Structure formats: structure tokens, C-alpha cells
Amino acid sequence: MEGRHHARLMGAAKKKIIACAAVLEEMLPVLPPEVTYSALDMGLHSRPENLKRALQKAIDQSALEADVLILGYGLCSKGAVGLRAPETATLIIPRVHDCIAILLGSHESYLQEMIKEKGTYFLSKGFVEAGGTPLDEYRQSVERFGRKAADRIMKAMFCHYKRLLFINTGHEEIARYTDHAKAAARQLGLIYQEAKGSRALMTKMVHGPWDEEFILIEPGKTIKLDRFLR
Q1: Which of 208, 100, 72 is nearest to 108 (CA)?
Q2: Predicted model pTM
Q3: What do you get for the CA distance between the two ends of the chain, in Å?
Q4: Phi and psi of 87, rounded to 5°?
Q5: Quick one: pLDDT at residue 8?
């Protein structure tokens, strides 16, 4: 039954992407014209319950125009748990704990980077374009509270981080974004490093196959935590 359902989805079903604005920015190069998309505010990540509500609303609205709804998210602090597929659409979500894994190409690549340094803050072109990076937050804090207070605020917020890792998923004109990331690292006193990302998982999200790297939620069913366990 599941195999036939999967084959039908890979056929003529109409697809739509629902993703964090930062992830969607990275996915645009692999999206064919017929695949529509919707971007959600990156700031929703800070409050998983708000993320869940916004995602469910976007899912329900998008079911009016597509048969397959592909989520550009991972487990994301359990924000994806409990999301329900509409009666007329199937949900597809990468089987990853953090959407950073989407940029690195796999859950395993994400784990490798966390093993290297658990206190890692990740940035990419998509995050810089979407706004709300640590450097953006610092500049806003300086305007609101003054430099000394802003320094204290950022030190408290990022005291558990040791490095800033910029992920390049294959963009050619990247200097503006790496300059932003380097400035953020200097401001926060973090080690700056770069990593080569991958569009492999993003491409599979759009074109398939939706294999063991994905969770497929049939119409009317909900996403459960145990589906993310490996």
C-alpha cells in the first residue's frame, strides 16, 4: 500500500514547498518552475509552539493547491511533532533533527560537525538574506540600548558557542555573505570556519526518491516523534 502511494506521489502529483525563509533561499536553485513555495519567518524557530502553529496553518492553506507538501524543516526543537497532513495531501519532511542538516546534505554530515564542536553557530547565504543573524541582532541592540549594553546582551546570548561555521551550498558570488559571517564571528569572539555544503538532500526533497532519509505522512495522519529516531 505504502509503495503504491509513494509511486503515485512521485508521478503527476502537484508539489509545494513550505520552508523556513533561510532554507528556502538555499533551495531556490533546485526548484523547477512548476513547484510552488511558501516561506515562513526564520524567527519562528525560537518558539517551537509558534512554529508549529504557523506550519499547520501554512499546511492547511497549501492543501488547497497541492497534493504533496514538502517541509523545509527538520524536527526543529519538536516544532514538527504533531503536525497533521490534510485529508487531501501528503506531507514529506526530511528525517533530520535540525534544518542545518538540509544545507550540509545529510543528517550524518550535521552530526560530524557537531562532534567537531558542539558549540557551533551555523550561517549560510540563506540566513544572511533572511535577516536575523547575530550581527543583525547586535546592530539592532546597539541602536536600542547602546554599545556597552549590546555587548553584554550578546555575550550572554552566545556564551555557549565557540565557533561560527559558514556553509556554502554552491553559490559562486559568496564573498558578501562570508564577509558578514566573519564580521559576526569577530563581534562575538568566535572561531570562524567554513564548510562545503551540499544540495543533495534539497534536490531529493524536490525530485525524490523519498527514501529512508524522509518521513512520509499520509493524508489525515500526524507526524510523531519516533519517526525521527534512527
Answers
A1: 100
A2: 0.91
A3: 23
A4: -65, -15
A5: 55
Model pLDDT, residue 106 = 96
Name the strands in the sheet holding 214-217, side by side, starting at the edge strand that comes first in the sequence. Answer: 36-40, 15-20, 68-72, 90-94, 214-217
Output the pLDDT for position 13.
81
Domain boundaries in the chain? Answer: 2-101+199-228, 107-196
Rounded CA separation 180/199 (Å): 22
Question: At residue 186, what are phi and psi to the nearest 5 degrees?
Answer: -60, -45
Q: Are strands 120-124 and 163-168 parallel, antiparallel or unpaired?
A: parallel
Query: In whole angstroms, how far apart are CA 27 and each of 32, 185, 189, 191, 225?
Result: 10, 25, 30, 27, 25
- What CA–CA distance (Å, rounded) separates 164 from 39? 25
Consecutive 10-residue averages of pLDDT for the chain (230 residues): 53 87 95 95 86 96 96 94 97 96 96 96 95 91 94 93 96 93 96 97 96 97 92
Rounded distance between C-alpha atoms, residue 201 and residue 63, angstroms: 23
Rounded-to-5 percentages of helix, strand, coil across the chain = 45, 20, 35
Compute the distance between CA of residue 82 and CA of residue 179 in angstroms, rounded to an integer.
39
**Torsion sign, CA atoms 166, 132, 151, 100:** negative
Could you tell me which of 27, 16, 212 has the C-alpha nearest to residue 106?
212
CB of 101 closer than 8 Å to CB of 74: yes
